[in-house]
Amino acid sequence: MFSDCERINKINFIYYNTSYIINMKHMLYDCKNLNNIDLSSFDTKNVTDMSWMFYNCENLNNVDLTSFDTQNVTNMNNMFCGCKNLNNLDLSSFDSRNVTNINNMFRGCKKLNNLDLSSFETKNVTNMNSMFFECPVSLYQSNKSKFKNFKKEELI
Question: Which H or E run contains 143?
């Protein structure tokens, strides 16, 4: 949708009808200067793929996804990869029971200090390699109970 829009720093999605979208892959891919985004009007109930959604949004520091309905999503790989200035992320509302791929999900989120995965379910995940690679060690430490079936070396 806005892939490679490197100069955009703000997008207003209030008038977008997203209720029929099933694939949000690469939606904001490489929007390096994006720093202000309101996705509260997004209807994501039919989305199955959110991979690479915010990939390399280097200047994004906070995004509110609490209104996202993720019950049908199966792929979240690289979703926030390269968001090096992201520092707060609340995914407590994410229903991840159908997700199978979270490979590199937070890779390179070097400033991500607050990550809420309290309702994150990983029992169907088959790939979560490097999920926390190049992230503060505290992210893995504070969420490691969610990833019992995987070795620490696979995640960081």
Answer: helix 137-143
